[in-house]
Structures are given as C-alpha cells and as structure tokens.
Amino acid sequence: MTRYDRRALAVAYVEAQPEYRHPERVRRQQVLMGLQELFGCTVDETQLSTVHWGLFDSTVRSYFGITHPGQADADEPARVPLDTIADLNKQSRAAHIDVLEAILAAYVDDRVFTSEDLHAIGIDD
C-alpha cells in the first residue's frame, strides 16, 4: 500500500505537468486530483499566495530545466564527469521537491494518506 504525504503531493504535482513525459502522466494527474481533495488544497495560483505561487511555479519550471549533456561509453574520459553531472542532477531534482514541499507546508497539514484513501474517493493509484 502506497503512503502519500506532503512530499508526495509535491511530486504528484510535478508528475502531472505536461513537461513530465511519461506514459502514465494521465494516471498521475488523477492521483494529484485525489491528493488535492484529500489534503483539501488545490495547488494553483488561486490557493497559494502570490509570493508562494510565484516561487512554486518557477521551481517547477526550473525542475524541468535540469538537463544532461548525454551518455559516454564506459571507457571514454568524459564518463566520470558525466556521471557527476547525473548525480548532481538527481540532487538538484530532490532539492526542487524540497522547495515545493516547504511551500506546501504553509497550506496543508502534515498528514499521511494511503492508497485506500484514494480508492475511497474513486482514484486508482
């Protein structure tokens, strides 16, 4: 059974965006809708303060701006620095989610929901 906390709400928001190229994005949009219902907060410019929404939105856009120059064969001299870039990108994505979660803390309680809670409102996660 999956557990959903405030961080999961932040991740769900990111994964529901059109820039998130994933075959299950539509399902992730449904999970976001369900989590917003359970938390009692729609994550948008009407629910967050102007300052918080501006930071939230720019953080999401920045998240999708994280890039990597490409892959290298195992024996290429560029492999090690490319691996470093990949590791730093992971850290950067996690830090972006940290920012989103911190903003959401001003709007949603520190509760945890489960797959059962989503199923109870008609959302299949």
List keywords for this structure.
3% strand, mainly alpha, 125 residues, two-stranded antiparallel sheet, globular, 5 helices, 2 strands
Please render the helix and strand layout as text.
Elements: E1 3-4, H1 6-15, H2 25-39, H3 50-65, H4 79-104, E2 113-114, H5 115-120
Antiparallel strand pairs: 1-2
In short:
This protein is mostly helical and 125 residues long.
Commentary on this structure:
58% of the residues lie in helices and 3% in strands. Helix 1 (6-15) packs antiparallel against helix 2 (25-39), helix 1 crosses helix 4 (79-104) and helix 3 (50-65) runs antiparallel to helix 4 (79-104). The radius of gyration is 17 Å and the shape is globular. It has one domain (3-120). It has 125 residues and is mainly α. It has helices at 6-15, 25-39, 50-65, 79-104, 115-120; strands at 3-4, 113-114.
Order of helices and strands: EHHHHEH
Per DSSP, the total helix count is: 5
Number of DSSP-assigned strands: 2
Tell me what portion of residues adopts beta-strand conformation: under 5%
Low-confidence sequence ranges: none
Q: For the terminal residues, how far apart are their CA atoms? A: 10 Å
Helix content: 55-70%
Strands side by side in the biggest sheet: 1-2
Q: Indicate the multimeric state.
A: single chain
The whole-number mean of residue pLDDT values reads 94
Inertia-based shape: globular
| Major sheet summary line | 2 strands, antiparallel
Radius of gyration: 17 Å
Structural class designation: mainly alpha
Task: Count the domains.
Answer: 1
